[in-house]
Amino acid sequence: MGTCIFKTSEIKKLVEHTLNAKDHREDWVKNKAPALFFVHDHGIYCMSNGVPNLVENENNFVSYAKDCDPNNDEDFYENARFIVGGDDFVETLPVDENWLKDCSEFQEFRVKVNQKSISATFAKPIN
């Protein structure tokens, strides 16, 4: 298991969307608070749980993890399996206003995955 790295510029767009949404999709425990869904299916990505979807270029906007984008990374499938394993999943990352500040101050958003937990942090301060 390993760490997924995302661009904070894309995460910020998702955070703004979920914080400004009037409604939110429920997670598996029926929580409807602002959040990002951390997803492994066809690649690894984050998406807003805000309703309606954040649409860009006629597609639902998602932020793919480094080396796990099926549109740009030839080995996305193998990379994703190496980082998070083979099973598909959706995990909820609760979001608050502090995330907007962190997106402006850091270069990367990292989600660390192991067999027992998932943790999210911001990394590499912008100089």
Provide structural commentary:
It is a single chain. With 127 residues, the protein is of the alpha+beta class. The chain has a single domain, classed as Roll (DNA Polymerase III, Chain A, domain 2), CATH 3.10.150. The chain is 24% helix and 39% strand. The chain has three helices and eleven strands; from the N terminus they run βαβββββββαβαββ. The protein has helices spanning 8-20, 76-84, 98-105; strands at 3-7, 23-24, 35-41, 43-48, 50-51, 55-56, 59-60, 63-64, 89-94, 106-113, 118-125. The strands form four sheets. Strands 8-4-3-9 form a four-stranded antiparallel sheet. A hairpin with a 1-residue loop joins strand 3 (35-41) and strand 4. Helix 1 runs antiparallel to helix 3 (98-105). The termini are far apart.
